[in-house]
Amino acid sequence: MINDFVTFRQADELYKLGFNYRCFASYSPKSKTISIAMDGHEDRIPAPTYAYAFDWSRDNGLFPNIDTFFNGDMMYGFSIMQFDDEGNMQKESTLCQYVSYREAQSECLDKIIEMFKQIK
Fold it and tell me: How many domains does the chain contain in total?
């Protein structure tokens, strides 16, 4: 289950971008270790799962999707959609570049973080 959580670096970046959802796990900023406890630790960084981080992303206007491709072997990619005020869609895509779902998921979150930095 530990692989379901974003990395410390990703959690720290999300926190700096305004991620404030209540998580049942957190990272220590000093040791960069994860623990399943948040209460009473105001100095800890929330540690969302990838699913929770993607929920936050959708709630804030970026819509990620992990894509699966079959061309001899199973490969993964991702797409991130964003809509402007007039309803026009912009799409960032990376196709068939990852051999595992988790790798695509992590790279997708890195791209989301990069996109939010450009927005803010």
Answer: 1
